[in-house]
Every structure is written in structure tokens, then in C-alpha cells.
User: Fold this.
Amino acid sequence: MQMALYNGLLWIGTPILNRHLKKRLAVGKEDPERFPERLGNASRTRPEGQLIWIHAASVGESVSALSLIDGLLKRSPERHILVTTGTRTSAEIMANRLPDRAIHQYVPIDKKDAVQRFLDHWRPDMAIWMESEIWPNLIVESAGRGIPMMMANARITEKSYRTWRKSFGFSRKLLGCFRFCSAQSEETAAWLRDLGANSVECFGNLKFAAEPLPVDPEAIESMEVAVGARPLWLAASTHRGEETFILSANCRLLETYPHLLTLIVPRHPERGAEVAALAVEQGIAVVQRSDGNTIEAGTQVYIADTIGELGLFYRIAPIVFIGGSLVPTGGQNPLEAARLDCALLHGPHMDNFTDVMQSFDKHDASLTVTDAQTLAKSVGDLLGDPALRAEMVIRAGKVVAGGTETLQKTLARIEDLLAGGMQ
Assistant:
């Protein structure tokens, strides 16, 4: 009944959906060359042998899946992995980071015909959904074909839990399609059980098990030469509304550190010119990486508006502010910076990483800032006190040290499901 209603609403809303997709194409949020994939039309041939499909909504989930992908491929030389995501940024990152025998495709829109075309072509032997993105047709159609399904690294917010409780049993129908769910926390595990998931255990957060972000050795050598001995700090994955605070903090810091270099990596690289304009308005000497310009002695702010280079900038910056946290967007992943020996700062809005931040709080492994003044003070304190900076790095290292057990438990359960267990 619920699926019939859902698909009926999709059918009625087809003109609206088509306009939405055309708008996304027009503004560059969809890849025009690979757009047929969104309609379920594969652009690659299905490889022979066993194929495990991993769906990861966006950048965070897909990066969390990389250690899982590596582990699965190491366990069988005949195995292949299909990774689906829904955003261009995640697709570009996956293109650079997926190993051999792993394929990326865009996830089809959740219309029945698109989903059926996708499944007809790929015929996965198992489906793994990272975290908790729910697409009803993808789930129900996959389960209807007898594909073993697992939700890995599951995470739901209290708001989502309360919304799904009002779904008149729809959550039970969808979650009941999964033979197993591994939750990031006991709280999420309890909520999933209440919503109708059949078999749930708390394995912990796979984000803790990720490998360090990659780096181009030539790029880091070039950047180190350009920076020299200048003091610097990085504002990573920033969102609109935060750069004003960051640029103001930069101006305050220049009073004490006249040779300071501030690095800004916007969460959405296409905003590079917008951020540069804000800097120019404040009389700041700014350079954009996307323009091919290099850092010079007079450069005060360097905007790294490119994709997939955070591994480079985390390696050269001793101090990192985690973006998306001074504005209420939920924050970005702090673990990637912690893994690369950075002292961490963030704003008060880290709601997307509540479980992760509990570990940081337990170890006093990060500092919270609220505005330009507190941001400038915290960065200045860390720049001026190498011992404090080193201690913060050690504490953050303790946070990221516990991911191996989570990964091994997840890999073992996947193998059980592939072998026909937990029917």
C-alpha cells in the first residue's frame, strides 16, 4: 500500500522532478556526460564474477566506504565492487581514489523504471548501504530480487527517528528489507530496532577506520617551497557565511603574525570566486588555486578551490578549523584532519558528527570557537605555543586509533551474508 502511494506520488510529480533535474544540470550539479546513469542506464559493462554494490550518498559516506572496499577486495581476487553516489563532488573524489576492480556509477533516481534498468544491468550479489539514506524503490526492488542487503555504519538523528515513527509502518517495511544493520552508536541501534530493523548491532563508526587522505608528492613539495617558513593555518570545507568570520580572524592575526598565510578550502569549490571577492572587499591580498596562481610573499589568503586536495592541505597546515560549524549546517568530518596530525578547531554546530565529537570531547582533542574573535585567539594561541599544539595532535590521534575492530567486524558480517548466512 505504502509503495503504491509512494510511486503514485512520484508519477504525479514527474513534471516537477524533470524540471528539478534540468535545473541541476543547468547549474552544474549533475554531470551532463554521465546523466543517463541517473536514469538507470549504465555507462560501464558489468564485470564477470562476484559484484558487491555499495551505495554511499555523498562525499562523507563514500570516503568512509574506502577502507571497506579495500578490505573486501583483498579478501577475494575475483571480486569487484560497484560504488554509487549521488553528487558530482563524490564522483570526482571516487575517480581518484577507487582501487582496481572498483567501479563508480551515479545512483539512479528513485523511479521504478530507472531502478529496474540499473538492477537488470548490474545484478549485484549483495548490496551495502552506507549510513542511512533511504530510497524506497531501490530498497524494495533489490530485496524483491533476493539480493542480500546490509546497512553499514548506520546513523540516524533523533529528528529522523521521530519522523519515521510517524510513517504508519513504512519504516518497518523498508528496514525489514535489510538482513543486518551495523550501527555507529547504541542510540542509533535502539532507534533502528524500534523502527523495524530485524538484526542490529553496534559495531562503531567506520569513519575511524579510514585511511589518511591521499596526496600528490609533487604537489606537496611545490606547496612547501611556496609556503617556506611562514606561519599558516587552514579553514577546511567552509560554508557560505563562515568566510566572513575567517577573513576577520585573519586580519586580527596579521597584527601579531604579519607573515601569516591563511588557507581556505571552500566546501563547494565553485564558490572560490565568491570567497575571493569577500577578501578583496577587506583589502586582503588573495590568490585562487583554480586560477593557476601561486603563493607569493605578499599573499595573505590562499583559496584552494579545487577538488580532492584536502590531503595536501591537511599535511602542510598544523592548525585546522573544521568548516560547516560556525553556521548551522552540521559541520564536516574532523577525523580526516586528526589523522594527519592537525590541531583542531571547530564551531558549535557539529551536529552531523555527534558521536564522533563525543570521542573528541572525551579526550579534550579539539577547541570550540564561536566567532571571529575566539577563532583568532585560538589560532593565535596554537601558533604561539608549539607544546600546546603538539599535545592537541596527540589527543586527536587517540580519537582516530580505534577503527580497526569496527572494520574487521563489518567485513566479517559481509562475508557471512555473502555465504548465505542470516537468511
Observations:
- Residues 59-75 form the longest helix (17 residues).
- The chain is about 45% helix and 15% strand.
- The mean pLDDT is 93.
